[in-house]
Design a protein that fits this description.
The protein is mainly beta and 429 residues long. It has two helices and 29 strands. β5 and β6 (108-119) form a beta hairpin. The radius of gyration is 28 Å and the shape is elongated.
Length: 429
């Protein structure tokens, strides 16, 4: 009898030790969920170990920043049915997420992000996205429906399950911005066991490995930037049925024949890392009365306070819009908060007067203030309603030796008998 009992105990232990979990659609995030995702420092940890009954111990990862991801219904993202009927149909999309972050690269900025998904028992597919794109002082609201949906996850996730998918989308702002992206995914659940993160340990984890080939074609202002640029990445995610998001997410980039870890993020509770306040604004040379769009570039912040210092009320929006009704220079202040921690930045915003005229009356170079009437030089980007008049001194000349942009609605006038020599760059838009 004692031997039979011992065998039963060992058999039960073996079942517990080698049991596999399943991650179903019902376990994944839904509208109303908020997650805090901590970004860890890149370490020498090995994230590639796969197999059965593995113990992945990543408890030594060190967090250095955090973002907040919010899920909501598509109808709660600020678009009415008339503005974007596509997202109002639950057969198209039924879930949306945003982290509210702004990204900026080489004069290109993307803000106010919203991703739209269709979630059902079989898959989670991204089918649309919305954001604001800003390039060279111009700002555009983009509502993009994918040509082919990107299947992020195929449910249920089980050990050794595989799937493949193809997604594609195109963004086209005529004469300004064009991007076509094609995404090929190959997914395999390669491991199961226990995973330990700095936040918690999870006994029923599944390891999903996604190999992704992405092909991009990009042009800005009708100038090609990349054509059919192909990149290879690998995403390694660990799921546990007790959580609605991957408990650990690793992105790797292929360099040569090797995948190098580029980012590590784990599910966490809210942490209070020191915020860093930063913002940009458009247009870069606003007139009085223009709507100025402020783009929040702060990091590690969960709330904000803006002061425009023109006698108006403050704002707590992430990316507010503001109108300076009078010409002048305004020290705009942004305070970024994370719990009891804060950071402050002040940037002067100059609102130019409307119908301002800048007159060149001297002889010589454009960038010499003495050559301009009242020593008042035009801004490098001439705003709408303003004008430049070339009326240099008799026998003289005006030499454009810097870059000058003249926006639509502005003008440059060369009076009869005068001349403008261009050594720099002039751009009319």
């Amino acid at each position: 009898m004692r031997n039979i009992l011992l065998v039963l105990i060992l058999w039960a232990s073996a079942i517990k030790c080698f049991s596999q979990s399943t991650y179903a659609m019902s376990s994944f995030a839904a509208s109303g969920d908020t997650f805090y995702l901590t970004k860890a420092q890149i370490s020498t940890a090995n994230f590639d170990t796969s197999g059965i009954n593995i113990i992945w111990d990543y408890s030594s990862l060190a967090g250095n920043s955090q973002r907040r991801l919010i899920y909501r219904l598509p109808a709660q993202t600020g678009y009415t049915t008339l503005q974007w009927p596509y997202i109002a149909n639950s057969n198209n999309v039924n879930l949306s997420s945003t982290d509210g972050q702004t990204t900026a690269v080489l004069g290109f900025q993307q803000s106010n992000p919203n991703d739209y998904f269709l979630k059902n028992n079989n898959y989670l597919r991204q089918k649309a996205a919305a954001y604001t794109i800003s390039i060279n002082g111009l700002s555009f609201n983009v509502k993009n429906v994918y040509e082919s949906p990107d299947t992020i996850y195929k449910f249920p996730l089980q050990f050794n399950s595989t799937s493949s998918s193809h997604g594609a989308y195109t963004i086209n702002i005529p004469d300004v911005y064009y991007r076509h992206t094609a995404i090929n995914r190959n997914d395999t659940v390669k491991g199961w066991g226990k995973i330990i993160t700095p936040h918690a340990q999870y006994e029923n984890a599944l390891q999903l490995v996604s190999s992704i080939m992405q092909v991009d074609t990009l042009s800005v202002l009708n100038q090609p930037v990349v054509t059919n640029d192909t990149s290879y990445t690998r995403e390694i995610s660990w799921f546990d049925p007790s959580e609605k998001k991957p408990v650990l997410f690793v992105r790797q980039t292929k360099t040569g024949n090797t995948y190098i870890t580029s980012s590590v993020e784990y599910l966490d509770v809210q942490q209070y890392y020191q915020p860093s306040a930063l913002f940009a604004y458009l247009p870069a040379q606003p007139n009085m009365g223009d709507t100025v769009i402020f783009q929040n570039l702060s990091t590690n912040a969960t709330s904000f306070k803006w002061f425009f210092n023109d006698g108006s009320d403050s704002s707590t929006s992430i990316n507010p819009e503001h109108i300076f009704v009078s010409a002048g220079t305004y020290p705009v202040k942004l305070i970024a908060y994370n719990g009891l921690l804060s950071d402050t930045i002040i940037i002067n915003v100059k609102a130019n007067p409307k119908n301002q005229t800048y007159t060149f009356i001297g002889n010589g170079y454009w960038d010499d203030g003495a050559n301009w009437e009242n020593n008042t030089m035009p801004p490098s980007t001439l705003p709408a309603t303003n004008s430049i008049i070339i009326n240099h001194s008799t026998g003289g000349q005006c030499i454009l030796n810097v870059s000058q942009t003249v926006n639509a609605g502005a003008s440059i006038i060369v009076n009869t008998g005068k001349n403008l020599l261009v050594q720099g760059n002039m751009r009319l838009q």
